[in-house]
Structure prediction request, 637 residues.
Amino acid sequence: MPNEEAEGSATAQSAELDALFADVSFLRQAILDAEVRNAAQIEAVRPNHRYSAANLIHYVELRRHDMRELQARLSDQGLSSLGRTESHVLVSIDALLRRLARLTGRVESDLPLPSVPDGAELLSRNAVALLGPQPAGRVTRIMVTLPTEAASDPPLVRDMLESGMDIARINCAHDDPATWEAMLANIRAGTASSHRPCLVSMDLGGPKLRTGPIQPGPSVLKVRPSRDALGAVIEPARVWLGTPPPDAGQPSVPAVPLQEPAWVGSRRVGERIQTVDARGARRTMTVERVTAAGCLVSLRQTAYLVPGMILSDGKKSGTKSRNARIGPLPQAERTILVRRGDRIVLSDDLSPVEPTTDALHRIGCTLPDVFADARPGERVLLDDGKISGVITAVSPGALTVEVRAAGVAGTKLGAEKGINLPDTRLSLSALTEQDIEDLEFVKGHADIVEMSFVRSENDVRDLLNRLDQVPEGGLGVVLKIETVAGFDALPQILLEAMRWDRIGVMIARGDLAVEVGFERLSEVQEEILWLCEAAHAPVIWATEVLDSMARTGIPSRAEVTDAAMAERAECVMLNKGPYIDEAIRMLAGILGRMQDHMQKKRSLLRRLRAWDREPVEEEGVNGPPPAVIAQATTSDV
Prediction:
C-alpha cells in the first residue's frame, strides 16, 4: 500500500509538472505574440531603449493574465512564482521553462537561452543618465523644490546642497525668468563651494483648471494676543506700523502702512499709542522698537484695524499733528460655504462672484475649454477633493454640479482652488502657450524638463517635437503622471517617450490621489513603479514627502513610513518649507538605511485591466477570456 501511494503521488506530481510546463509555455507564447503585434512601436524607439520597449510589452501582456493560481502552483513545487519579473520578463519565463523541462524529462536544449541586457543594470544606467550619479551612502537621489528666496539667499541654497540635495527643482508656475536666473547662479555658486554636484530640473506649469475669483470682503486686519486656558495673555499681539526693517526676524508679524510715514520717526520705545478700532473699542499699543521707517507695537487686547483709523500719542503740540492714520490694507478673502445637496454652477465668466447662503452657488472656471468635453454623470472634484459632485447639466458656458460629498457642517470653497474632472476625456493640450514660452528658457538652462498634466502619447509627442533642436542627450524629460487618463495610457506614454534618450516618470501623488481616490493611491503608485521598472525608466516619488517635517520641523509617523517606502524609486522629491534642511537630512538617513532592507518589490500578480487594449485568450492560465476589453477605468485597476 505505501508503494502504491508513493507511485500515485509521483504520478500526480508528474502530471502537475507537465501541466505547469504547458501553462507557462502558453504564457510565453502570448508574450511573444504581443511583441509581434507591437513590433512597429518597438522599432520606433531609440536603439538603446529597444530591449526596454520589448520588455514593457512583455510585462503589460503578462499582467493581462491573472497569475495568482499559477503562482501558488509554482510555489508548491518549489519553483519561481514569477513575482519579480518586471525588469526581465521573458528571461524569467525562459529560465522557469528550462527548470520545468529538466523536471519533466524534456530536452532542455530545445529551449532558448537568450543573451540579453541585465534589466536592473539598464534601470541603474538610465537613472544615472537622467538623475545624475548615485550620491554617497544611498542609491536614491533627493530632489528639492526651490522657494523664491533661493534667488536672493545664497546660504539657503548652499545649506540645501550640503544637507543632501542632488537635484534642484524650479517650478515655472511661479516667479519669472529673472528670478530663475538668480536661482541658477546660486546653485552654481553652491555646488562650487560645497563640491557637490547638483542637476537642475524645471517644471512646466501645464494647464491649470481652477475656480475663479470671489468678491473680496472689507479691508480689515484682525490682531489678537495669545492666551492661556484661563484667558490670561501669555504673548501680546504685535504689528509693524510702517515698513519693517530687513532684520525684523518675525515674518509672522503683519505690517500696517501709514498715510503719514514720517510719523513713526518721532516715536519712542515704551510710548503708548491710543486708537479706536473698527468696532468702536478703545485700544492701547505699546512701542517696542523704533526704526527710521517703522515701529513695532504690541497689544494686549484683540483689535480690528481698518484704513483711516487714527493713531494718537495722546499729546498736544500746538498746530503740529501728533496723529497718524492707517493706510490701505488688503481686502479679506472670502469663501463660499458648500453643503451636501447644493448645486454649483461652474461658469466661463471670471467676474468676481458674491458668496450666497443659498443652495445654488456660482463661480468661474479658468479653462472654459472643458465645457465642450464634459458630460452629465461625470465626477467633479473641487479643492483637492474636499468637495465632490456629479455633473447634472452642460451648456456652452457652464457646468452644473450636484454636490454629493462635503463636510458635515459644509466645506468652504475659495478662489483659485483646483478642479479635477477624473472621468472627462479632456481635449486640451498639456502644453499651454506659457509652457511653450517657458520651454525656450528651460532648453538653455536646465538639465531636466518636467511636463505636467500628461494624459496621452500625443502630449509626449508634442513636447519631443519641440525639443528637436536640443543636442543629443542635452535635456532629460520627466513625465508627470497626475491624472487617471495619464495612468491608463502609461504604457503608450512610455513607448512614445522612448523616442528620447533620457526619460523618466514622476508620480505626482497630489492630483493623482484626488483623481483616483485617496483610498486607492497606494495601489496605483505601486503599479506605476512596476510598469516603469519594466520599461527600465527611473521614477521620481513626489508630493508631501516629509511635508510636516519641512513645514514645522516635526515629522508625523505616517510620513516617515511613506518616506521609507519611497526608497523603491530612483529619486524622491521634497517640497519647500522653513525646515527643509532638516527634512533633507532626515530623508537622506531614511533612504540610506532602507536600501539595505528593500529593493523594489515582491508581490502577487493578480490581473490588471488598467492597461488592457486587446482581448486575452486565457485557456491554460486561469479562467475564460473576457468577451470585450473596454477602455480601462480606475475601477479596473
User: Anything to note?
Assistant: The chain has 17 helices and 27 strands. Residues 618-637 have pLDDT under 50 and may be disordered.
